[in-house]
Amino acid sequence: MSGHGFHVHGPHDHEVEHVAQHGGDQFTSRVAVLTAVLSTIGAIFGYLGGHSQNAALLYKNEAAIQKTSASNQWNYYQAKSNKQNLAELSITLTSGETREKYVQEVERYKKEKQEIKAEADKLEAVAKAADQKSELEMHVHERWALATTLLQVAIAMAAITLLTRKRWMLFGVYGATALGLLVGVAGYLHL
């Protein structure tokens, strides 16, 4: 502890500091080292969880942008359809050169609509792929978040173990640690 300023320490921080300054038994030392290792692993899991959440948000944003672009293409397609319909109506109402001009316009609109439709379909496929990537990243984020929480529980239980000196509580520490590590591995493997 510093004599200057304001510091907030958790129970396990105080115990680790006490052992460092005054020495302690092997039990206390081992649990203190375990706590430090769990804190480090938990920090890594927390970082990976934040990274996967950010990636999910970026993919979701990309999906929204592509969906908007696809919608714009479908609106453009609809506008061409309206023009084609008017040209088709004009074919029935006209004759001669004017009629031939509208026949060519109908063909041009059909061709343009095919190109617009292909672009819209491509944009929708990109949006769907980005949505799927986002869902996968959120699933991974949930794994990292759960793993981090389990390690935090293990750290808290280790602190209680140190404070109460009840060795049987180590089973809870080891259990929460094992579950946290298993869930972390599942996150790493994208399961």
UniProtKB/TrEMBL annotation:
<feature type="transmembrane region" description="Helical">
    <location>
        <begin position="170"/>
        <end position="189"/>
    </location>
</feature>
<feature type="coiled-coil region">
    <location>
        <begin position="99"/>
        <end position="133"/>
    </location>
</feature>
<feature type="transmembrane region" description="Helical">
    <location>
        <begin position="31"/>
        <end position="50"/>
    </location>
</feature>
<keyword id="KW-1133">Transmembrane helix</keyword>
<keyword id="KW-0472">Membrane</keyword>
<dbReference type="InterPro" id="IPR025570">
    <property type="entry name" value="DUF4337"/>
</dbReference>
<keyword id="KW-0175">Coiled coil</keyword>
<dbReference type="Pfam" id="PF14235">
    <property type="entry name" value="DUF4337"/>
</dbReference>
<keyword id="KW-0812">Transmembrane</keyword>
<protein>
    <submittedName>
        <fullName>DUF4337 domain-containing protein</fullName>
    </submittedName>
</protein>
